[in-house]
Structures are given as C-alpha cells and as structure tokens.
Write a structure and sequence with these properties.
Layout lengths: L6 H6 L6 E3 L10 H10 L4 E5 L4 H8 L3 E6 L11 H9 L3 E4 L2 H13 L4 E3 L6 H9 L4 E5 L6 E5 L6 E9 L5 E2 L7 H7 L3 E8 L2 H6 L4 E3 L4 E6 L17 H10 L3 H11 L6 H7 L2 H5 L11
Parallel strand pairs: 1-2, 1-8, 2-3, 3-4, 8-10, 10-12
Antiparallel strand pairs: 5-7, 6-7, 8-9, 9-11
Helix pairs in contact: 2-3, 3-4, 5-7
C-alpha cells in the first residue's frame, strides 16, 4: 500500500499528548523539519524519548510542544548544551526522566520484543539508579533470577505511540534503509504503535528489493512516508550532507534566553510556510551544496 504523504499531513496525524520517539544523535540525523512542523501546528503535551537528547528534542521543548522527556543525557556536541531542555528542568516546566543511554535502548528493546521487562546490570550500584527509583519507581523494579536467586534490576518497556525515523532511502510502502550508525532506531520502530518515515529520497520497491539486506525498517511498521531532502538540516546525515555549523551556532545563541528564542522561532519556524521556504531562507541550494558529503569520506 502506498503511504506517500506530505510532512504537514504526517505531523497532523499525531495528537497532542502523544509519546513520540525521536531518531537522532546530538547533531546527527535529527528530525529537524519534523520538529519545526510540530511547533508550527501547535501540537502540545508530548512525551518525547531518545537514547541521547539531541537538537530536535531541544527545539521541540523550546517551542512548547513537550511536557515530558525520557532520555539518556544529551548535548549539541561541540556546540554546547541543550539550553531549552536545561531551562525547562530548572524552571519546572519540563518533566525530565534521565537514564543512561544503554538503559533507554534496553527499554526500547523490551518493547520491540514484546517483553514485560528487561533486566540490566549496568545501573546497579550507581547514583543514577537511586535517582531513577526516587523519581519514578513505577518504571524500574527488582526481581530474583528463578535459576540462581540473584537479584536483578529490571526496566519497564518503552512503547511510544509513534516513532519518527529519518532515513536515507525508502519506497512508497515504507521499507527503509539507514546508512551508517542506527543507534536505537530499529528497536524504536518495532516498539512503537506505528512509524513515520522521513526519507532523503523515495525509490521504487523494485530498487529496494534488489538489496533486501539494507532494509532495516520494514514497511509493515510504517503509517506515513515523507520524501524530504535536507530534512535533518542543520544537523548532518551520513553520506548525504554535513552539519551546518553557522546555523547551529545561530540556534545556540538564540536559545540562550527565552526572548531570543522567541525571535528565532518567529523567523525560522512561524515565519516560513514549510520546509521548502525554510531551506530558501537559509540560503537555498547554493548554500546547501556546500554541505553535501564527500562521496569517499561520507561527510
């Protein structure tokens, strides 16, 4: 079944209050066009989750779309902190549940396997598990191994309403390829009720079938397919384009105060009709061509 749609239509399928799993790493393969469209449409009260907090999540928090965040720490890499997330925590407007990155991945894994819990050793004896148990005891528990009697910490599965997967290539049915690091993306998609695929390019199903081993997200998990080049800008996509340092620096400076953030959102989110107008605003193809990846190095 063909699932091609626009970004606006895909985003409109997400009700306020949903749990959304995000795909990126600090400034790599982040769902930036998605985040801008969510803010533009006024969707509120979201829970967002990811192994590592990244630029898309920070923008969603800054745009007032997020009530709760489940993550394993995060940053904007060499560009600094997640200013909007940190300010939300400090001001009490964001309910932040911080785990280790591995334990978030394990919670997705439990969800993807249909398991009621996932045992983990790496948090044992840490200050982090003490904080987690004090903050949200319902998502962690302890059980005895029925074979050895050893006491284990176990994690509740993460079961998002929708996962957003920014991929390199997909077909109209949603069968998708991700090149390079995949982090927790596959487990996110399998643990979620459905997945929205945002692809740098859409190709024929026949092309996908020629290399079936590349398909990491099967179309049966996917509700919408959006073809949207440069949808991760200003973050990078391996073998497609590098991050845009100037635009990330502009964002970081803007997030330093609520007032400058409002001005940034007014100009780069509310001030443009869609992703295409945003790309024109930041310099169009003349600028984007300077970010295209070297075909050998991949960045």
């Amino acid at each position: 079944m063909e699932k091609i749609t626009t970004l606006a239509e895909a985003v409109a399928s997400i009700p306020s209050g949903s749990h959304v799993a995000l795909p990126g790493f600090p400034i790599t393969r982040c769902a930036m066009a998605f985040a801008r469209e969510v803010i533009r449409q006024g969707i509120k009260g979201l829970t967002i989750s990811s192994c590592v907090g990244a630029m898309d999540g920070d923008m969603l928090v800054g745009g007032g779309a997020v009530e709760r965040m489940i993550y394993g720490g995060g940053s904007l890499d060499r560009f600094g902190r997640l200013n909007c997330v940190n300010r939300g925590i400090e001001e009490g407007t964001l309910q932040a549940e911080e785990y280790s990155s591995l334990s978030v991945a394990f919670r997705y894994l439990a969800g993807s396997l249909g398991m009621p819990f996932m045992p983990i050793k790496s948090l044992q004896g840490s200050d982090l598990i003490r904080q987690i148990e004090e903050r949200t005891g319902s998502d962690v528990a302890r059980i005895n191994d029925p074979f050895t009697g050893e006491n284990w910490l176990v994690l509740k599965p993460l079961l998002p309403d929708v996962s957003i997967q920014l991929v390199h290539t997909a077909d109209a049915e949603g069968n998708a390829w991700i090149m390079g690091p995949r982090w927790d993306n596959v487990e996110q998609a399998k643990a979620s009720k459905r997945t929205i695929v945002i692809a740098e390019r859409v190709v024929s199903t026949e092309t996908i079938r020629q290399q079936p081993e590349r398909t990491v997200i099967p179309g049966l998990l996917v509700s919408h397919v959006v073809e949207l080049p440069f949808s991760a800008h200003p973050t990078s996509v391996y073998r497609e384009y590098d991050y845009d340092a100037g635009e990330i620096e502009r964002y970081v400076k803007a997030t330093s105060t609520p007032e400058s953030l409002k001005a940034y959102l007014d100009e780069y989110v509310y001030g443009v009709k869609d992703h295409w107008e945003y790309l024109q605003k930041i310099g169009g193809m003349k600028h984007l061509n300077t970010l295209k990846a070297d075909p050998i190095l991949g960045y």
